[in-house]
Amino acid sequence: MIRHQFATVEDNKIFYREAGAKAAPAVLLLHGFPTSSHMFRNLIPSLAERYRVIAPDLPGFGFSDVPDRTRFAYSFKHLAETIDLFTQVIGLARYAIYIFDYGAPVGLRLALTHPERITAIISQNGNAYEEGLSEGWNPIQKYWKQPTAENRAALRAFLTPAAAKFQYLHGVADETLLAPETWQLDSSLLARPGVDEIQLDLLLDYATNVALYPKFQEYFRSKRPPLLAVWGKNDPFFVPPGAEAYKRDNPDAEVHFYDTGHFALETHSVEIGAAIRDFLARKVAKSSAAA
To answer: CA-CA distances (angstroms) from residue 99 to 95, 123, 126?
Structure first.
């Protein structure tokens, strides 16, 4: 069974889902925009038989607290610091990370800070290469270069219910596999007072993640963490070259593509879950047993 809990980190409540034995090897699932740990509801049970699975909601997302922008800096650096503290509060010493969308720079910042804690990386449309960014990023990149009020206002189009629904539907062959409560939940949480400005802050700050891509890539080369990429090949924002690029810096990286979109777990949770279990059994379970 999945447990739904809160941990207090620097006076803010972080909501998280947890399943599996506490003594088992840990897997930390990091969600993206505009969603929450709800995206992992089907994956968690498929991993929990062998692993301690933890899926937090980032501050400002899902059911975690939404501290005001005047007292909480909504930057990816701060999000990573908060999740770092969260792992310490709940007692995660070493763990594999599943990185998706915004969860990728959060997780990879953790890996740069604490490489000894990372047992493996599963990247599901979690980008670390400039060639992985599609033309869908053009208006965001324009805002990075010219952070004007006009360019900021243009990005509100990404925060609409239609935009949330688009991220789920685009590239999906069989839309009957998609549960409508997914984008409805995302949209309702985005509509909370102040969340729009928080999200616009993060869209601007995403430029700092791109600036860190060379350091992420050097980490892949020097540390060679076991790495599995499971990628929805029809993602309108993070395109397949971003997955293939992992092999350039880590030749042992394993890359699987699926005929689906951004939220690949919504249509391929069974296939992706099987690939992750196989990967972790080979790369993490044995090393944990040897340790």
So the answer is: 12, 5, 5
Q: What are the pLDDT digits (tens) for 14-40? A: 999 999 999 999 999 999 999 999 999
Distances (CA, A) of 67 to 12, 35, 158, 170: 7, 18, 22, 32
CB 126 within 8 A of CB 99: yes
Cα(17)–Cα(38) distance, rounded to whole angstroms? Answer: 9
Determine how β-strand 12-19 pairs with β-strand 3-9.
Answer: antiparallel
| CA–CA separation, 14 and 36 (whole Å) | 12
The structure's pTM equals 0.97
Query: Given CA atoms 260, 265, 270, 274 in this order, what sign does their dihedral have?
Result: positive
Largest Cα–Cα distance of the chain, in whole Å?
57
Tokens of 13: 């409540």
Q: CA–CA separation, 124 vs 229, rounded Å? A: 6
Is residue 54 within 8 Å of residue 26, measured between CB atoms? yes
Catalytically annotated residue among 38, 256, 262, 268 = 262
Per the rule left: phi > 0, alpha: psi between -120 and 50, beta: everything else, 91 is: left
pLDDT of residue 268: 98
Order of all β-strands in the sheet with 254-258? 3-9, 12-19, 52-56, 26-30, 95-99, 118-123, 227-232, 254-258
Instruction: Establish whether 268 is a catalytic residue.
Output: no
Span 269-289, pLDDT tens digits: 999 999 999 999 999 965 543
